[in-house]
Amino acid sequence: MAELLTTKETLVALDNIIKRAEKYICIFTFNIKIDENYLTRLRNASKRGVKITIVFGVDNGDPQVLDAVLNISNCTVYFKPQMHAKFFYNEKELLVGSMNLSEASAKNNFELSVLFSGEDYLSVISKVKEEAKEIISDSTDWKNLLPTIERRNKKELSFRPKFTNEAGTCIRCNKNIPLNPAKPFCSACYNEWAEWGNEYYLEKYCHQCGKGKESISFAKPECYTCYKN
Ligand SMILES: [Zn+2]
Ligand SMILES: [Zn+2]
């Protein structure tokens, strides 16, 4: 069967996919902001021995949520920058639609999706799995990106807050952004950078004075003169 679902029905269907899974759950979502309810559902699935795979496409979520997800056993999280598809499946049902695994989607958006089960599930699932495999083969295991992200978060915490209202420059494109050496990219350049997450990759501009400089990187976003001040 293939059923067209509204927002509320989509939420119920996603719940069911997680609750009824016996072997595996695969979640492909652009956004990964999730609340405690979803975390509990995923933890319960994991306790039943269900293997969970999550692939997400944008690193703008709460690091604590990602940590919580990573602490679920049987759960692997992959990051595939700009992966914008949203689909969820277990061994019996497949949900394809506009909804992210995100609180925002659940609360504010108008969503439309299609739920495949029975014969219709069987007729599409192998192609979906092929596609999923391809996406995952081009993704980074989130655990391997963690050391970089932890350093970024630590840097953020240790940073002097007096700078936050001042103007700075994106070290890659020279666009004006708030001054914060822990976040020296505009969001577009950040997403580009995050694909590799190389802290020492050379960028072009000093985050503070905006001048073209040679030894600028995520790790050292300011020129020597600005850093000294
Ligand atoms: Zn930029
Ligand atoms: Zn400078």
What do these coordinates show?
The strands form 3 sheets. An 8-stranded mixed sheet has the order 1-7-6-5-2-3-4-8, sandwiched between helices. The chain has 2 domains: 144 residues, Endonuclease, Chain A (2-Layer Sandwich); 70 residues, no CATH class. The protein starts with a strand and ends with a helix. 39% of the residues lie in helices and 21% in strands. The protein has 8 helices and 12 strands. The protein is elongated. The longest helix is centred in the middle third of the chain and has 20 residues. Helix 1 packs parallel to helix 2. The protein is α+β, with helices and mostly antiparallel strands and 229 residues long. About 2% of the residues have low confidence. The protein binds zinc ion (2 copies).
Q: Could you tell me how far the N terminus lies from the C terminus, measured between alpha carbons in angstroms? A: 66 Å
Bound compounds:
zinc ion
Strand fraction band? 15-25%
Number of strands: 12
Quaternary arrangement of the chains shown? single chain
Q: What's the number of domains? A: 2
The parts where pLDDT drops under 50 for at least 5 residues are 159-163
Work out the radius of gyration: 20 Å
Determine and state the CATH class of the largest domain: Alpha Beta
**Number of alpha- plus pi-helical segments:** 8
CATH superfamily of the largest domain: Endonuclease Chain A
Q: List the strand order in the largest sheet.
A: 1-7-6-5-2-3-4-8
Strand count, sense and barrel status of the largest sheet are:
8 strands, mixed
